[in-house]
Amino acid sequence: MACMTPPPIARQHLPALLAAMPKAELHMHIEGSLEPEMIFALAQRNGVALPYASVDALRAAYAFTDLQSFLNIYYAGASVLLTEQDFHDMAWAYLQRAAADHVVRAEIFFDPQTHTARGVPMATVINGLARACDAAHEQLGVSAALILCFLRHLSEDEALATLAEALPYRQHFIGVGLDSSEVGHPPEKFSRVFAQARAHGLHVVAHAGEEGPPDYIWQALDVLHAERIDHGVQATRDAALMQRLARERIPLTVCPLSNQKLQVFPDLRQHPLKALLDAGLCATVNSDDPAYFGGYVGDNLQAVFAASDMDANHAWQLAANSFEASFAPEADKAVWRAQLADCFTQVARELPGS
Ligand code: HPA
Ligand SMILES: [Zn+2]
């Protein structure tokens, strides 16, 4: 259980522990898992012209100053996705990588409006992604589910049309989220579409407090009734909000390397993850857009621990929080919690000096 005390493990074994522990990843945009090599391979397969001469030239463009500077390149990269097989291959590559990081549960964001606006049918997007999720369960033992995100720089009417277009595929996604350019697009702009999604029994999450103010987090909770806050790191600026998040155990899906690369916390030593955990919040670690921000969930854990004095207790909390925060069935969570306890026991027994 989340409140169980893990066995003591020496600091030098933290990297091995972080790598080996089972974990859930709850904040990852599948279009952000497109590695430059795959962007070029899909461009060639589909005859799409790219404004970059080579993989290296594309990678060299990944020098971001803020969220918008990233989003411009991220949407350009997604333009190579045309067929159901493309969506399948992208998700399958991510899920294989996640399995190598001991991810046992992945709740995957996708941005249908990025694709339907280019004439790609909703069915192509969802069927390709869902086929990869099914294969991950069967072949990798990874439980994977999809969360449809609305682009907040577009109108609520467009989000409503997107939800209507996706509902025939309702069995293939478990929830809705809200992403893209945050500042100037507050959660309350999407109150009606989130109410509709909830009425359809969908889970609801929202990006809030990545670059935007704590007020956007309050709105996500009180207007959208978000069950999790994606990022949420600006909550540290509002003591009353911190108390509420802790008291209600509202999960924050934190993405350290994203925050670093988008200049939210350019120095990871200033990152508030440890402060969030120590204040009793249900914080988790995730990769956001791993192909763009320098790493997958395991890399995020290694980087944020290397930059702080967090210990094995924090590692345990992060893994336990990721299961608590997930929308998976309780029976699955019980299995993963037992695996987590086994993992800690094994590391404590096998590695010297623990
Ligand atoms: O970090 C993010 N923030 C908002 N929108 C996004 N879309 C992909 N990644 C992000
Ligand atoms: Zn995100």
Over all CA atoms, what is the radius of gyration? 19 Å
What is the element string, with H for helices and E for strands? HEHHHHEHHEHEHEHEHEHHEHHHH
Mean pLDDT: 97
Number of helices: 17
In CATH terms, the superfamily is Metal-dependent hydrolases
In the CATH scheme, what's the topology name? TIM Barrel
State the main characteristics.
single chain, 354 residues, alpha/beta, 8-stranded parallel sheet, 13% strand, globular, binds hypoxanthine, A_deaminase_dom
TL;DR?
It comes from Ottowia flava. This protein has 354 residues and is of the alpha/beta class.
How would you describe this protein?
The chain has 354 residues and is of the alpha/beta class. The chain has a single domain (11-350), classed as Metal-dependent hydrolases (TIM Barrel), CATH 3.20.20. The chain is built from 17 helices and 8 strands. Strands 1-2-3-4-5-6-7-8 form an 8-stranded parallel sheet. Strand 3 (143-151), helix 8 and strand 4 form a beta-alpha-beta unit. Helix 1 (14-20) packs antiparallel against helix 15 and helix 16 packs antiparallel against helix 17 (330-350). The radius of gyration is 19 Å and the shape is globular. The model has no long low-confidence stretch (mean pLDDT 97). Hypoxanthine binds at residues 29, 32, 67, 74, 179-180, 207, 210, 258, 288-289.
